[in-house]
Amino acid sequence: MAESLIAGLLPLKGGYVVVSPILNRRSWLQLAVAALAGSVMNPADGQKPPVARGPGRGPIRIGKVVWVSHGQTVDAVVREVRDAELSACQIGFDGLSLSDAAPLRAALDKYGIEGTAISEHNPGVRIFDFYQGPRTIGIIPPATRKVRIAALKTAADVAHAAGMPAIHSHLGFIPEDPNDAMYPEAVAAVKEVAAYGKDLGISLLCETGQETPITMVRLIDDVGLGNVFVNLDVANLILYGKGNPVDAMDVLGDRVRGIHAKDGRFPTSTRNLGQEVLMGEGRVDFPTLLRRLKQMNYRGTMLLEIEAGSEDERNRNLIYSRDFLARLLAAVYNEPGF
Q: Across 69-113, where does the E strand assignment appear?
């Protein structure tokens, strides 16, 4: 059994993401269990909430971000979500086409999984750092804008045909200055995608990270079509040094319609993103965030996004993160049935 995750660059849907070494797993588990017990224990009766298992259909459903690579079947990928005792997924494909809609709908129905959105980022390479990222991520870079807008329209067609409510993507590095010449181009690109989706009854979920929360809200408001919302990646704001998810909720508010759950630390390099780490090891204040989501009456999903390490390590960390979140959800929402 490997004791630590591998540092370096890992492939991510056509690009790369910077990941970090993780502490010795045994030490991490001991620390995390102790911290978790202290954070969720009821001071009145000293009882820990139960370890929640099973898909659950409570106020916040725990799921997983998944990807269908070439050579895989959508049935097998969705079955893995069910086998992990999760209830929802956001799903992406290598080479998405309308022919994927029917098997996707069949797999979701077969395994009882809630499909929240089609995640689309192709085609082309995406490099997740501060220098190449602005040139390679999302629909803002001019070189790949046209083909990626077309791909997102295909994703909207698939979502509609499969009975799913939304599509999801990184928009890219939205200019912080609305007077930047690239800003109106960004608005126009997002509006083109959103307008296409709106005709189909499909929403566009914009992933957080590359911009401050107020910049994302500005763009959504300037698009002005009413079907563009936020997918809050609770670690990305930290990894990009743009803020933290608890404070971001004051800005994003009820625009949040989807959540990616992972943990991370702020960047210490001017070139590379911060470190992605095991849930509970980073700077995401999960108990406070969940209380904030409850105050906002968020009733959607939290989708685990475990990307670092070997396949075995990712599988172990997925289960650990699932139970970590389930305990906190049971405590904060006072629903032991999670």
A: 88-93
